[in-house]
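Quick one, tokens below:
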């Protein structure tokens, strides 16, 4: 039932939001150039690595050594606007349609974080990652890593169709309120440093 709901939701979303995809693609191309879509490897179900799609929100500026500048220096004003309303996440509807993600579930994180999970945190990998999840409606990027993982595991233990509906509804409200977009003191989120980390996503 969850997979059917994902296919239906992602399919309808892609059709209804097709004009928005076109407009955002043109704006990103004009303001930041190409590529329009940002691709990155993430850990999915059972830790399997897949490529997640997002609208690009940062430029490619580098220092004199050729290394990318910190996120805070590469995140553009237009990129901040995209993140403020979670518009950068829309291409992940393709990830849902192809089965790598679900509409609702723990957010997919970098594969390099997986070895840092403790036994309980690793349980978040027992379900497909989602575009939104319990942690996103409970504080998004403004809550600590331990709190985020605790919410992810709670979702794994209590997932249901009606819980997913509730999370989707609350996600819309959270986006409209523009809460928890970034961690305090960070343009995006600091890295996860292990199960003892007290930092934010």
């Amino acid at each position: 039932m969850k997979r059917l709901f994902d296919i239906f939701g992602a399919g309808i979303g892609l059709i209804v939001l097709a004009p928005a995809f076109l407009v955002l693609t043109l704006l990103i191309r004009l303001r930041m150039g190409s590529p329009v879509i940002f691709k990155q490897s993430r850990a999915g179900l059972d830790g399997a690595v897949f490529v997640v799609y997002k609208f690009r929100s940062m430029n490619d500026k580098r220092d004199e050594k050729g290394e990318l500048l910190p996120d805070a220096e590469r995140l553009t004003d237009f990129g901040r606007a995209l993140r403020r309303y979670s518009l950068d996440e829309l291409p992940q509807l393709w990830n849902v349609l192809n089965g790598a993600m679900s509409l609702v579930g723990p957010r997919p994180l970098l594969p390099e974080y997986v070895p840092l999970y403790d036994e309980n945190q690793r349980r978040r990998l027992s379900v497909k990652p989602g575009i939104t999840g319990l942690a996103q409606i409970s504080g998004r990027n403004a809550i600590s890593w331990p709190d985020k993982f605790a919410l992810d595991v709670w979702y794994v233990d209590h997932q249901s169709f009606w819980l997913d509906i509730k999370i989707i509804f609350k996600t819309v409200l959270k986006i409209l309120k523009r809460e928890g977009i970034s961690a305090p003191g960070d343009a995006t989120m600091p890295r996860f440093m292990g199960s003892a980390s007290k930092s934010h996503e």
